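name: query_chain
kind: protein
chains: 1
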Amino acid sequence: MTIPGVLVISAYIAAQMLSDVLSLKIAWVAGFSIDVGTFTYPFTFTLRDLVHKLLGRPAARTVIVAAGAINLVMAALFAFAAWLPADPAWPLQREFAAVLSPVWRIVVASIIAELFSELVDTEVYHLWVTRITRRFQWARVLVSNSISIPLDSLIFCWGAFGGVFPIATVWSIFWANVLVKGAVTLVSLPGIYLVREG
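structure:
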């Protein structure tokens, strides 16, 4: 594997992990309820496209599944750390547990949404490259993300927050997710040109 391949895979896994941790906070931004992971997660779609471009569809699928497994292990380790009794001299046990103990419903919804939407993104990207054209690399990213972003947001928002928050809040989180992810897609779009086709 090439150094660019290692770097892209590392960045993809890191963005996935950071997004899952940040999704534990719901913020109020510009009149929308939004999980903070929305600000980092959209980069994973373009990073996944880079993995696909460099290493092919099987590698992209493998990295997606590996990221899901890593996020599950991360959540389990946070739960274990919160469960362990604190040293009496360390005063932050309650705060640690409150912030980093996984909310399993959010973890599961997030991992399912990531797996499903990223695998769909992979197939759309692959169809574009094999059936339409290898030119216009920006278009393959835009088309694959325009399908996977709403799909990811729908699965995550309703899986994590449906029945917990009022319906209007869940839709607010959904639309904020779609808008922010769409904006980040546009910002990250030129990133597809950072590596050469594998």
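note: The domain at 3-194 is CATH 1.10.1760 (Arp2/3 complex 21 kDa subunit ARPC3).
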